[in-house]
Amino acid sequence: MPTTPLTRESRVVHGHRRAFVRAGEGPPLLLLHGIGNSAQTWAGVVDRLAASHTVIAPDLLGHGSSDKPRGDYSIAGYANGMRDLLSVLDIEQATVVGHSLGGGIALQFAYQFPERCERLVLVGSGGLGPELSLGLRAATVPGSEAVLTALTHLPLPLRTGLRALDAFGRTVGWVPAQDLAEAGEAMLALSDVEARRAFLRTLRSVVDARGQSVTAVDRLYLAEAVPMLVIWGSRDPIVPVAHAEAVRRLVPTARVEVFPNAGHWPHLAEPDRFAEVLLDFIADTQPVEHDRDGWRALLAEQRALAER
Prior knowledge:
This protein has helices at 43-50, 75-88, 101-112, 134-138, 144-152, 157-172, 175-188, 193-206, 242-250, 266-269, 271-284, 292-307; strands at residues 9-13, 16-23, 28-32, 54-58, 94-99, 117-123, 207-208, 211-212, 228-233, 255-259. The chain has 308 residues and is an alpha/beta fold. The protein is globular, with a radius of gyration of 19 Å.
């Protein structure tokens, strides 16, 4: 859990304040955090990435310092919001990095706006299969808001305890402690009623009691031309590492990196290795230029296969 706060700017897009971190100069990198988190989750890697890139790390709508309206919290809505934020910042194309929910948004962004996505990086990503932790599935059932309200109003010493748990986990290399501490921090961020409601709207747009209900697996064939990096923790308790192997099978051109000592937040568990792997991937690949004719040909080929 990073303790040094990141400095945010903000822009109003479609009437709602969008907070974001901007750092460095160079080719743009868009970093998308997971549900319940904020741009702060990238604090351990921003400086290294910003040494050679323009880093844009937003607080997604409903998260962090961004507004939390009664609005559209669908994956497509988030992807639209990222396109429009980049446009406001005069950024036409970017390498898009998404963690957890942010990975699902990154996949949707690449699908909706392929001409604006130079590379795709998925980190413990959602949207690649139904499997998901019991805790997040349980949060979708009726009555869960009352439970969240009670949990997020626990005494302040809980935050100190979570930080101690995280420090202990890092000292002894106990991954579950680190993940539990990060999940606890995300829960405490929901003490505000608007934040809780935005969290539940977001979660229920992609998850039900049976697991993830939105998938990009049926469209991954369209991403074969896009340079893709997949990073996962081998001990991820929230989204199973088997989803990374599914990408390896479905997109043979993808580079897959499994961190053996990491859980759901590999960029927090091993920030130096994370930054190194990401920067090496960018250095070894060329930004894709969207091929409209090739895209149409792939769609036609899939339709022909389905009609056989």
